[in-house]
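Why should sequence recovery work at all? Because a backbone constrains its sequence more than one might expect. Tight turns favour small or flexible residues, buried strands favour hydrophobic ones, and helices have their own preferences. The token representation captures these environments compactly. In the example below, the structure is given first.
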């Protein structure tokens, strides 16, 4: 086990920004530090995740989980349908509609 150091991915903030989204750092998992007992390289391999340099293959890695099940999205407080955009787009077309959850038509 080594001494803890500031996370090189988030600079010790525990967060990463993706456009208007503020997400938990995927490398340190919001802890702000790595190494010590929280060494990312020693952790379990998430299901569906290729190793560094490995290409994703659904036959090997299985199907990827939906984006709304990712811990960074679950912890963000965003709508699980539109991720805060307020609209949804039909797959295979360019038809936009108000988000059924955000617009009050939720289940």
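From this structural description, the recovered sequence reads:
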């Amino acid at each position: 086990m080594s001494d803890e150091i500031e996370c090189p991915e988030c600079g010790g903030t525990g967060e990463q920004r993706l456009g208007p989204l503020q997400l938990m750092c995927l490398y340190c998992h919001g802890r702000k530090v790595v190494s010590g007992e929280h060494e990312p390289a020693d952790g379990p391999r998430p299901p569906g995740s290729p190793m560094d340099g490995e290409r994703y293959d659904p036959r090997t890695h299985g199907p990827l989980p939906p984006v709304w099940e990712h811990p960074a999205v679950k912890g963000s407080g965003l709508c699980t349908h539109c991720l805060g955009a307020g609209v949804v787009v039909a797959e295979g077309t360019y038809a936009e509609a108000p988000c059924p959850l955000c617009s009050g038509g939720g289940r």
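A few observations help interpret the result. The first helix runs from residue 58 to 61.
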